[in-house]
Amino acid sequence: MKPKREAILRMVLDFLTNEKHEKLTISNIANALDIGKSTVYEYFDEKDAMVAEAVAMAIDEQVRYLLDVEGFDELNYDDAIRTHMRRSFHLARENKTFEKMMHNVDFVTISADYRAQIERKVFEVYQTLHEHVMTILRKGIDEGLLGEAVSEHRLHVIESLLIGSVFAVTNPLANPDIAAFIDEIAHCVTQLHQ
Questions:
Q1: N- to C-terminal Cα distance for the chain?
Q2: Which CATH code of 1.10.1740.10, 1.10.357.10, 3.30.360.10, 3.30.70.100 fits the domain covering 3-192?
Q3: Does the global pTM surpass 0.70?
C-alpha cells in the first residue's frame, strides 16, 4: 500500500475512533494530515470509500493479530485452542480502538455499494476464522482428543461457544478469571466434540 494512502486510512481510523462517522469529511482528513483535499481525492472518490477501506484495513489487522501465531502449526490442540482464546480475549478486552470505530461508523448512511463491500469483508473474515477453528479442531482429532465425526450443527455450536465467550469477557459485570474461563471453554469444546 502506498504510504500516503495508508496515512489517509490511518487518519480515518483515528478520526472514527474519536468522532462519529457523520463528522468525518475529506476536509477534516486533509487538514489533519496537512495535505490538500485534492491529494485525498487522488486516492478516494468520496468519504464512504475511505470509510469502507479503513474498516477493511482495521478488520485485517485484527485478524492478522489473531491468526499470525509464530509456530502455530507445531502447537498441539490444547495449546492451539488456548492461544486462540487468549488472543481473542486480548482483542476483545484490550483493543478498544476497533470497538470504538465500529460503534462510531453509521453503516446505515454508507452507500449500498460500500456497505456491501464491508459486509463481504466481514463474511470473508468469518470464513477465515471458521477455517482457523476447524484447523484447531483437526489438531484435536489427530491427537485422539476429539471425536472424528461431528455433525455440522455441532460444529456451529462450538463456533458459537467460542464467539460468545469473546463477548462474555467484554461484559464489565462478568469480569471472569481468564485462565479459568479458557480452561472451561477448552473442556466444553472437548465434550461437545466427542
A1: 45
A2: 1.10.357.10
A3: yes
